[in-house]
Amino acid sequence: MPGKRARRHFSQLSEFKRGLIIGMKTAGWSTRRVAGQVDRSECAVRNCWEQWTREGTHARKTGSGATRKTTRREDRKIVRQALVDPTVTQSTIRADVGVAIVPQTISRHLAEANLKSKHPFHALPLTPEHRQLRLKWCQGRSMWNVTDWQKVVFSDESRFVLGTDGKCVRVW
Predict the structure, then answer these.
(1) How far is CA 121 from the centre of its chain?
(2) How far from 13 is each of 41, 46, 71, CA to CA, in Å?
(3) Residues in a beta bridge with 118
(4) CB-based contacts of 116: which residues, under 8 Å, 6+ apart?
(5) Which are the contacts of 60, defined by CB distance < 8 A and separation ≥ 6?
(6) Is pLDDT above 70 for 61?
(7) Cβ–Cβ under 8 Å, residues 56 and 66
(8) Among 13, 16, 78, 71, which Cα is nearest to 46's?
(9) For residue 129, what pLDDT band results from cuts at 50, 70 and 90?
(10) b/e per residue 8-45 (b: at least 16 CB within 10 A)
(11) Exposure on the CB side of residue 121, measured as CA atoms within 13 A
C-alpha cells in the first residue's frame, strides 16, 4: 500500500529498532535486507548506521525540529481559554496570548488537550423510546389516503444561507 509506505518514512525509529539495525549491519546484512526486516526505508537504515559508525551511538539527537513559539505557560493559557469559553475564536485566543502564532499552532495545542472544533448539538439525538413512538405514529397512519394527508401541514426546519455568514458557532 503506497499510503502505508509513505507514512513509515516520517515516523521516528524506536530505540529497539535502532539497536536491531546496528546488530544486523554488524552481522554483515545488506542495507536493503535490514530495511525489509525492520520495515523502514533504506535511507533511514543507512542514516542510523552512519551515525553509529561516525559517533558510536544510535541515540536520537536532541533539539531537532522547529523552535517553539510559545512557552508551556502560554500553552496552558490557550487550553484554559477554550475550556472557559468554548465559543472563543482562534483570533481571540491569539490576541490574548500576545505571541505571533498561526492558527494551526492553536489548533495543535487544543488537539493535544483533546479539544477539537465542532458544531454544537441543536437537538438531542433520538432515544430508543422516541424511535418506538415515531414508528407507532407512522404505523397508525400507514393506511391513510390522499385526502387524509392533504389535511396535514408539514414544516421543514432546514435553513439555507446564501451569504457567507450562516451564524454557525463552533465550540472547542
Answers:
(1) 20
(2) 11, 12, 27
(3) 171
(4) 110, 172
(5) 12, 13
(6) no
(7) no
(8) 13
(9) very high
(10) eeeeebeeebbebbbebbeeebebeebbeebebeeebb
(11) 4
Cβ partners under 8 Å of residue 81, min gap 6: 88, 92, 93, 96
Which three cell numbers, joined as nine digits, stand for 39?
520495515
Cβ–Cβ < 8 Å for 172, 82: yes
Report the alpha-carbon distance of residue 1 to residue 7 in Å, rounded: 10
Name the residue with cell 481571540.
92
CA distances to 65, 90, 109, 119, 172 from 70, rounded to whole Å, are: 14, 15, 10, 28, 20
What pLDDT is recorded for position 62? 66
End-to-end Cα spacing for the chain: 35
**Residue appearing with cell numbers 545488506:** 30
C-alpha cell at 70: 510559545
pLDDT at 155: 65
Q: Return the axis-axis angle of helices 15-26 and 31-38, rounded to nearest 10°.
A: 150
Instruction: Choose between 63 and 154: higher pLDDT.
Output: 154
pTM over 0.90: no
Q: Indicate if the pLDDT at residue 10 is higher than 70.
A: no
Torsion angle, CA of 158/162/168/170, rounded to 10 degrees? 120
